[in-house]
Design brief:
The chain is an alpha+beta fold. It is 45% helix and 16% strand. This is GPI inositol-deacylase.
């Protein structure tokens, strides 16, 4: 069978494409635009004492209070008078990450002279791998629960003692905060506000163990069932905000941070005045984001009680103002815009009849000024876009009826305030506000003018006004195909003169794998300095992305989605790009396919799923090896088995069909208690599946398996001796013995696999199953190296035997020619001489066979078989005898080598499966090592059952000659491996913790078959 083929080449190409996408995903992101927060005084973390029983129960954890400067001494005395805030760190997170929030909050207290302040507490959770090992989440949740009671106990003697604690969770700390409410003993009134930063709410980033999956399922189900008002365990009193990081966060994709039950779901790129993407750690120190969070906390305080307001609607409005739709100043109180405003008759009133104009005052004004924009029954006067630069007034745009005349000037007596329609624009320098009004709708309400008001100021300000028809500024762009990625498609050749606003709709831009580049190029600028901003608006998700277009910045706007269009989304509003332009320039707009960004999106969303496809391909390769063992009596090499037995059309149609059947609602309800929801159905519900996804991931995994097998083979060939030496030295140090003793120990272990299995089981019971898997993988590798060395020895002996046979054949031919030429030798002497020579040859061959059998006990049976064959060789004719002898030896040696090499091929495939399971359970080893000083044994241990089963299996499979070619029911084993491969791709792409039991089941089936299956009729003997 050929090792390479068309699909191998195709998979290699796809693998290279995947690596390009992975590189794009990891490296091609926007620069970090966040400013660093700094402490004005040295930060101090004061440990808060806990009851003895809590300390004994949770020795790894601790509770701290944050302080700076002179406040630290008061904290050491356990004197707290503020509003408690508890920070919960996440995966490998430090309790010291609270310092940015706490320090900024402290400085705001001083600068704002507020009659209250916040006390920041933080929990030390030992920097555990809570995102990869779910066994610690329940323990962390219980510890935080007890910390809340301890924090509130510190305020018992205060006059205005708090009754609740604000929770801020970073990463997995947000899931710990959510899990508190699931505890039946938890008083839900203890928490009214939860803010989570880059927390994966929907599902784990990597579902590596069952404890993590169960925690997510139970917590999310609890919030889903109890969030609505009137439900049992009502959680409607909680204000919940979830903040994602955007494209810079390569650890937690922002789509996972969205929580349907949250009051605010937003990415940092869409938060007014932040507008920057944050990486996973930056979110706790990004100055712009920290400022917004601190302002929000200060605005939800009731000034009467000096504690967090109990009015949930008021709190939600504050969060909405600061994080979604800020219209005015930094305080929520500034968001109140009076409905009716009365104007000053003595102010300056100016009416400009042009549809596009700029009102610019470089030195400010001394008199209040009103700019009047007339409303007309004209389609060209349908919409109004106004960009206000450096206008600080919160109430600045109104609609009115100009029905009075004062000093020969037409003016309005009062107007309706439209300032609540204001949006803040991202800006490189000056503050920019924007409003977009429907003049036709205002005209139908009998208004005659829109008023732009500016109060006296010494600062420069500017209005860019653009009155236009809706159809002229709303453009629908046809998305380019992948095949046209080298060229740009024109969306707009040139904007109209003095245009301020355009809107580009992108229908069909709904999937996460789609990516485009929008090029906005300035043309014919009338001044050197200019500024424009383009914003991507996704109607079903708050994930706005911005780009500036200035004289020095000409980067394209990268169009990528963090969340696909929901399957139940009932609106026809497409993704759109809003362009707020500089009226001093014209602009061209072109769109291009972002092929590398598309590949990067595939890597962002689907890379974790590749591992399940790798395991499925390994199972199919093992199935192919067993199938060829039945047909030919030998296992083919690993790469041949992959090339011949792991074609995608063998398994992918069955996976698709099975997932569709299991996804039927009726069948799903019947089988829900028995079978979980297939991962493919989950992907379809999240609208993350597409037609070629399975083939793409299969090809990537195919290339991965091919390279992994090649790398492991090279390691066995070139590193086997080095690995053996390292193992011997490790044993010498561990057993405090000599290298010779260690060599004997290694030899004994290789001859007694049951002893190794017993050691692995003992190690698993005393420490953790994952450590047993790691040690077993190391021994498995050494065993492969030893098997390869034995094969080379057999091959070397066979080569020497061939050379000896050829030399004997040459000597016999010389003797025969001499006998024919001698006329004086009689027939009897010639016959005697020939028989003696044949007897000597036979004796010499028998001696060699006996020597080989004694030297290599594993091939002794084969040598006996060969010897029996040799005794049947006729000695009547030396030519026939030598020729037959040579053919029998070649056949015997070839069969012997094939059989020993079959064992090596089989164990190589089993080793790769073992390695895959070990990789999944590496976090368990890391957690065990980190907590070793607290507990020698890992509890709970999600790797225990899988490790136990695999350790028992190898105790059998590492002994004797496996697999045996002469057994019945191989076809049933092959069918079972095929079914397991289908199950892997159905239930494990997202739930990676299913891979361990699947691999264990496969090896158990093979072990039981090798032990109990009867011999087949017409046994395939080794020597045949």
């Amino acid at each position: 069978m050929a090792v390479t083929g068309p699909f191998v080449v195709f998979s290699g190409i796809v693998f290279v494409i995947f690596m390009l996408g992975l590189h794009n995903f990891l490296t091609n992101n926007e620069e970090n635009g966040c400013e660093m927060t700094y402490m004005f005084e040295y930060p101090q973390f004061v440990r808060v004492s806990l009851p003895v029983d809590i300390v004994r129960r949770y020795p790894r954890y601790g509770l701290y209070a944050y302080g700076e400067g002179h406040m630290t001494e008061r904290l050491r005395q356990m004197k707290f008078t503020g509003i408690p805030v508890l920070f919960i760190p996440g995966n490998i997170g430090s309790h010291k990450q609270v310092r940015s929030l706490a320090s900024v909050s402290l400085r705001k207290t001083f600068s704002s002279h507020t009659p209250f302040h916040f006390d920041y507490f933080t929990v030390d959770l030992n920097e555990e791998l809570s995102a990869l090992f779910g066994g610690v989440l329940k323990e962390q949740r219980d510890f935080v629960h007890r910390c809340l009671h301890r924090i509130l106990a510190l305020y018992q003697n205060n006059e205005n003692k708090p009754t609740s604690v604000v929770l801020i969770g970073h990463s997995m700390g947000g899931m710990v905060a959510k899990g508190l409410f699931q505890d039946p003993s938890f008083d839900k009134s203890l928490v009214r506000v939860i803010i989570t930063l880059v927390t994966p709410h929907k599902s784990p980033v990597l579902g590596l163990d069952s404890f993590l999956a169960k925690y997510y399922d139970s917590v999310n189900a609890y919030w889903r069932d109890n969030r609505r008002a009137g439900s049992e365990g009502n959680l409607s009193h909680v204000t919940f905000a979830s903040i994602g990081g955007g494209h810079r966060d390569i650890l937690v994709r922002s789509g996972l941070t969205q929580m349907e039950e949250a009051d605010v779901n937003v990415l940092s790129t869409a938060i007014p005045t932040v507008w920057h993407s944050t990486d996973h750690l930056c979110s706790v120190w990004c100055k712009e984001l920290v400022f917004v969070i601190v302002r929000t906390l200060f605005d939800i305080v009731n000034l009467t009680t000096k504690q967090v307001s109990e009015n949930v609607q008021e709190r939600n409005l504050v969060f909405h103002y600061h994080m979604l739709q800020r219209t005015a100043g930094k305080r929520f109180s500034a968001s109140f815009h009076p409905h009716t405003v009365y104007f000053d008759y003595n102010a300056v009133w100016k009416e400009n009849i042009r549809r596009q104009f700029t009102f610019h005052e470089p030195n400010g004004i001394v008199t209040e000024t009103h700019i009047m924009i007339r409303l007309l029954d004209d389609v060209k006067h349908e919409m109004l876009a106004v960009e206000a630069i450096s206008v600080e007034d919160k109430d600045w745009v109104f609609a009115c009826v100009a029905d009075i005349v004062h000093s020969d000037v037409r003016m309005c007596q009062s107007g309706i305030n439209l300032s609540n329609e204001t949006k803040f624009l991202p800006s490189r320098e000056l503050q920019r506000k924007f409003v977009y009004l429907n003049l036709a709708a205002l005209k139908r309400r009998s208004f005659t003018h829109v008023i732009l008001r500016v109060k006296p100021t010494k600062r420069m300000f500017q209005f860019n006004v653009d009155v236009h028809s809706s159809s002229s500024r709303h453009i629908t762009a046809s998305l380019p195909k992948w095949v046209s990625f080298l060229s740009n498609s024109a969306v707009l050749d040139s904007t109209v003169d003095h245009a301020v606003y355009y809107e580009v709709a992108l229908p069909g831009f709904e999937q996460t794998w789609q990516a485009y580049l929008l090029h906005i190029q300035p043309q014919d600028c009338h001044k050197t300095s200019h500024h424009a901003v383009a914003t991507v608006v996704v109607p079903w998700s708050r994930e706005d992305v911005h780009v500036h277009i200035t004289e020095s910045i000409r980067k394209p706007l990268r169009l990528r989605l963090q969340s696909p269009k929901p399957s139940l989304y009932n609106s026809s509003d497409p993704v759109k790009v809003t362009l707020v332009l500089d009226p001093q320039c014209k602009y061209s707009v072109r769109i291009q396919s972002g092929v590398l960004d598309s590949l990067g999106q595939l890597a962002r969303f689907y890379t974790p799923m590749v591992l399940s496809y790798v395991v499925a391909i390994l199972l199919l390769a093992l199935r192919e090896q067993l199938r060829t063992l039945v047909e030919t009596g030998q296992c083919v090499m690993f790469h041949t088995a992959v090339g011949a037995g792991a074609k995608p059309y063998y398994v992918l149609p069955a996976v698709r069909l099975g997932a569709r059947i299991l996804g039927w609602s009726v069948l799903l309800k019947l089988m829900h208690p028995l079978l979980p929801l297939p991962d493919l159905v989950i992907l379809q519900e999240q609208n993350l599946d597409f037609l070629l996804l399975s083939l793409y991931l299969y090809a990537v995994a195919y290339g991965t398996v091919y390279l992994l097998g090649l790398g492991c083979w090279l390691a066995v060939i070139f590193s086997g001796h080095t690995a053996h030496k390292m193992a011997v030295r490790f044993l010498a140090r561990s057993l405090t013995g000599t290298l010779t003793l260690s060599e004997w120990a290694m030899a004994g272990l290789s001859k007694l696999p049951a002893a190794v299995s017993a050691f692995l089981i003992a190690l698993m019971y005393s420490t953790c199953g994952a450590l047993s898997l790691c040690v077993g993988a190391a021994f498995f590798f050494l065993k492969l190296c030893k098997m390869y060395e034995e094969y080379l020895e057999v091959l070397f002996k066979y080569s020497l035997k061939l050379l000896a046979s050829e030399e004997q054949q040459g000597v016999s031919e010389e003797q025969q020619s001499s006998a024919l030429e001698g006329d004086d030798i009689n027939e009897k002497d010639a016959t005697t001489l020939t028989e003696n020579d044949a007897g000597d040859d036979k004796s010499q061959d028998n001696a060699e066979s006996e020597t080989e059998a004694q030297h290599d006990p594993d091939t002794g049976d084969k040598a006996d078989t060969c010897q029996t064959v040799k005794t049947t060789v006729s000695v009547a004719n030396i030519d026939d005898s030598d020729e037959s002898l040579s053919h029998v030896e070649v056949a015997e040696s070839s069969d012997s080598n094939d059989y020993s090499f079959s064992e090596l091929h089989f164990n190589f495939s089993a080793f790769l499966l073992w390695l895959s399971v070990t990789l999944i359970n590496v976090p368990c080893v890391l957690v065990w090592a980190r907590n070793y000083r607290y507990n020698v044994k890992l509890e709970p241990d999600p790797s225990f059952e899988t490790s136990l089963v695999l350790s028992f299996c190898v105790a059998i499979l590492w002994q004797g000659k496996f697999p045996k070619p002469n057994l019945k029911y191989y076809q049933w084993v092959c069918h079972s491996l095929y079914v397991l491969a289908v199950v892997t791709l159905t239930y494990a792409p997202l739930s990676l913790h299913h891979l361990g039991p699947i691999v264990a089941t496969a090896l158990v089936l093979i072990m039981l078959h090798q032990l109990v299956a009867p011999a087949s009729e017409g046994n395939l003997s080794v020597g045949n």
